[in-house]
Amino acid sequence: MAKCALISGVTGQDGSYLAEFLLSKGYAVHGIKRRASSFNTERIDHLYEDPHASGRRFTLHYGDLTDATNLIRIIQQIQPDEIYNLGAQSHVQVSFETPEYTANADAIGTLRMLEAIRILDLGSKTRFYQASTSELFGKVQETPQRETTPFYPRSPYGVAKLYAYWITVNYREAYGLYACNGILFNHESPVRGETFVTRKVTRALSRIHLGLENCLYLGNLDARRDWGHARDFVEAQWLMLQQAAAEDFVIATGTQYSVRDFVTAVACELGITLEWREKGRHEHAVAVMAPSDSAVKPGQRVVEVDPRYFRPAEVETLLGDSTKAREKLGWTPKTSFAELVSEMTRSDLELARRDALVNSAGYHVPRQHE
Ligand code: NDP
Ligand code: GDR
Question: Which intervals hold domain NAD(P)-binding (predicted)?
């Protein structure tokens, strides 16, 4: 019998990579998607199967982590072997503006999932993965961060995820559930949400290169992150649920770059050489060299700091040590920083080319109310 998995957050970056990965392993995959007023399944449309076709292995259910009855009903119906709780309000800066909702979805949502397993008496069948985060380390107490490093979250998101982390541990210890936390450091991809810094940079610089935009505005350029590829990281999520006993694991690449480094690397991928000028709130990057076919001209300011993107409390530096995952799961990251930058930039350049072509060919789609 094929294994059956349920993914919350299936429409997100990780959900889409994980669904693809589990389908390739022969799983029947169920995903929870939220009702939205417009289509929100772009990342998984290529996996869609006609509900009328027989032998369907990928099924979507409407649901929400803030709705316990709905979660219980879906889990009761599916009786999954594995649940991957990836659904969350996942944007750190947005969590300062929507702290209560973030707590409801990210913290209590996790409790609702665990309670559903307990209420339905699925503890001996269903394994549970919680999408924990390096944001738990926040104001770091030790470098690099590992499973034993003390937590010190710095945002409503981080604090909500702290509850989710501990309630997962608690249900493992109290009720014997196979429940584990993957403490994942930042991981990116061409389908990363457009407002996270890596994707914001690859998208904006590609568009500036083609003359669709003029300048990229960013917040803290000094923030340092351990950036990996989502494709590699979802494999670790799966591996965590295939062990003899449930444990928590740090998943990271062990290399660290600043936001400024990331911008410089993306510009370089586009053939543009940047020079960083001034410091602090007035820091900016000027193009000193650009390919002849680029819309960017030498002397053009292509990046500026905009304090609106500073956070009320910042996580300045994160660097993970995933020795435990390497030793116990046999997991290592496959994608280098340079490969990640290149893959994301090439993908966004392609999308920008499409937009530029639509502009230059003069095709105009009237807005609905024009
Ligand atoms: P995304 O923001 O890309 O995806 C989040 C998913 O959660 C989307 O499918 C979203 O639906 C869904 N969602 C949001 N709110 C709810 C809700 N109330 N009920 C049900 N579903 C909801 O995040 P990622 O894929 O990047 O991350 C996956 C998980 O891993 C998240 O929990 C995140 O916090 C965590 N994480 C991510 C890391 C990273 O670097 N990417 C690192 C460590 C942890 P919709 O599409 O409708 O918005
Ligand atoms: P993060 O990712 O907060 O680490 O959370 P994000 O890409 O949003 O920020 C990384 C760092 O870049 C700095 N930064 C900016 N960030 C954004 N979004 N926009 C900007 O313009 C900008 N300028 C500078 C930030 O201040 C920050 O220091 C991500 C999410 O995926 C979480 O869900 C996950 O848990 C963690 O990674 C690990």
Answer: 6-344
CA distance 220 to 54: 51
Taking the CA of residue 315 as reference, the ligand 2 atom at the shortest distance is 28
Write down the pLDDT at residue 361: 87
Q: Residue 186 C-alpha to ligand 1 middle, in angstroms?
A: 13
Residue 219 Cβ < 6 Å to ligand 2: yes
For residue 307, the enclosing domain spans: 197-224+258-314+336-361
SS3 277: strand
In b/e form, how buried is each residue of 36-61, taking b as 16+ CB within 10 angstroms?
eeeeeeebbeebeeeeeeeeeebebb
DSSP alpha helix (H) spans, 197-243: 197-209, 230-240
Q: What is the ipTM of this complex?
A: 0.99
User: How many CA atoms within 13 Å lie on the side-chain side of 193?
Assistant: 15
Please state, in angstroms and rounded to a whole number, the distance separating the CA atoms of residues 78 and 6. 8
Ligand 1: atom nearest CA of 14 is 25
Tell me which residues of the chain have a pLDDT lower than 50. none
246 in Cβ contact with 334 (< 8 Å): no
Residue 274 lies in a domain: yes
By alpha-carbon position, which residue is closest to atom 13 of ligand 2? 220
Can you tell me which residue has the tokens 């998607």? 33
Q: Is the CB of 186 under 6 A from ligand 2?
A: yes
Question: What per-residue confidence (pLDDT) applies to 195?
Answer: 98
In the prediction, which pLDDT does 145 show?
98
**Residues marked as catalytic:** 133, 135, 157
pTM of the model: 0.97
Residue entry with tokens 């002849």? 292
Kindly tell me the number of DSSP H helices and DSSP E strands found in the chain. Answer: 11, 15
| Total number of domains in the chain | 2
From the CA of 66, give the closest atom in ligand 1. Answer: 18
